[in-house]
Design goal:
single chain, alpha/beta, Carbamate kinase, 9-stranded mixed beta sheet, two-stranded antiparallel sheet, 11 strands
């Protein structure tokens, strides 16, 4: 293995949004998209990095949005439905990864032993140490918690070196680049500046968890082939969100 493909981190938490599982501006699951992500993850696994993945479920159902438009569904029920959507994504990703020869485990915060292991921190870490990719589904198992916050919490629990936020944009901008073509992309920015400026990186609770535990967040565009590997090997892509340096 060349030095350029050696991992810069020992253990990584990768956050995949629900949009990663479908075509642009569509919903549901596109196995073409899932297979493409799986091939990138296979490259990452081959470096020896310990990789855990948290899935979103917005391609199927967003609990918060669903409860807002349907008075017949209690908000907590809608959130549980959203958590179950992440399990569906996790199972699709697991089969796609194993089809690529990558040993994988799915762990769910909501117990459903017929399809996934329960999330147990020690067991998760042991899988990682054995070279298995662990897909963490169902958020935290509690309603009203975003999958971004779930990713930050899991990153703390497994003592990840970095949280990789895979998106469809190439980093963090001063404004929405689709609305303002003159928006500036940051190569790096502190947690404090993200919160102060109200930048859309992750929700504030997720930012606070990473800030308190000193876990940097790398925001990057996963759709560019090879970018997940570049992120893991420490190439300067996207935007690095980090504690403010003295």
């Amino acid at each position: 293995m060349s030095d350029s493909s050696r991992p810069a981190f020992r253990r990584v938490l990768l956050k995949l949004s629900g949009e990663s599982f479908c075509r642009s501006r569509e919903g549901g699951i596109s196995m073409t998209e899932v297979t493409a992500i799986s091939k990138q993850i296979k490259e990452v696994a081959a470096t020896g990095v310990q990789l855990a993945i948290v899935c979103g479920g917005g391609n199927i159902l967003r609990g918060k949005q669903f409860s807002a438009v349907s008075e017949a569904i209690h908000p907590s029920t809608a959130h549980y439905m959203g958590m179950l959507a992440t399990v569906i994504n996790a199972l699709a990703l697991q089969d796609a990864l194993e089809n690529e020869g990558v040993p994988t485990r799915v762990q769910s915060a909501i117990r459903m032993e017929g399809v996934a292991e329960p999330f147990i921190r020690r067991r998760c870490v042991r899988h990682l140490e054995k070279g298995r990719v662990v897909i963490l589904a169902a958020g935290t198992g509690s309603p009203f918690v975003t999958t971004d916050t779930a990713a930050a919490l899991r990153a703390r629990e497994i003592e990840a070196d970095v949280l990789l936020k895979a998106t469809k944009v190439d980093g963090v901008y001063s404004e929405d680049p689709e609305k303002n073509p003159h928006a500036v992309r940051y190569a790096e920015i502190s947690f404090g500046d993200v919160l102060q400026q109200g930048l859309q990186v992750m929700d504030a609770q997720a930012i606070h968890h990473c800030m308190e535990h000193g876990i940097p967040i790398l925001v990057f565009n996963f759709q560019q082939e090879g970018n997940i590997l570049r992120a893991v090997t420490g190439e300067r892509i996207g935007t690095l969100v980090h504690p403010k340096k003295n």
